Every structure is written in C-alpha cells, then in structure tokens.
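Please annotate this fold before class:
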Amino acid sequence: MVVMFEIVLGILIWLSYIQNRKLLNPMSIITIPYMFIIPINNWVAVKYGFYPINDETIIMHMVAFIMFYIGGSVISISTLGYIKVEKEKEQIKKWLRRYKIKKEKIEAGIPIRTRGQHRKNSEPKNIIAEQAYEIQRLKMENDLLRDFLRFAERR
C-alpha cells in the first residue's frame, strides 16, 4: 500500500508541475513531506517500536491529496498568476506600439493631439474684459478679507 501511495503522490506532483510550470507549488509543498514520513515510519521506525500507519489511513491521505489536486485544478490559483503575467506582457507590447507610432508621427511632422477634453474657447476672446473682471474679483476678495479682520479684532 505504501508503494501505491508513493506512485499516486508522484503522479499528482508531476501533474501539478505540468499545470503550474513550477516544482514548488502548493501540491508539492503539502505532499512531499508525506512521501518521506509514511515510508520511513512503516519501513524503518516500526523496527524501533513505533506503530505502523495502517492501510486505511494511507488510503484516507491518498483520497485527501487527490481531492486537494482536483480542487486546485478547478480553481487553478497559479494559473491566475500566469494570466496576470500574460496581461502585463500585452500591456508592454501595446505601450511600445503606441510609443513607436508617436515617434513616427513626430518624425513625420504630424502634430500630436493631447489627451482629454479640449476647452471650447482655448484662447480668450477679449483680454481686456477678462483682466477687468479679474481685477474686480480681487478687489471684492480684498474687501471681504479686510471686513473679516476688522470683525475678528472687535471680539
């Protein structure tokens, strides 16, 4: 039974390695200690007075590890990380493409449009009227501050 346990765990670790493209993945981290503990206990430690791990317990561990592998395959936590890396690669490729297009436009003398919504009136129509309005607004603000300071000193 121990040999069958070792074979099943080896297959699960190998399948998990193929799926995740890493040797250290959740499946291998959890199962590798059991691959060493159970055979050492049943073949070596029994000679020194330890109790052997019975076949029912080994089968229970095997079923638990198979369920853990199936759950990890369905959820595929590590695959999400792989997808994230692929998205980052795509973002970099798109940025490089935009950068090259922008550089080509600059070299060709084509003006680059700025992003965002442009002002309807990008240039002021009547500069003198706007300056007069600004002076009036600043005078009013000055009067309000002066009145506030006078009021604050009386209290």
In short: Helices lie at 2-20, 26-43, 55-75, 77-108, 127-154.
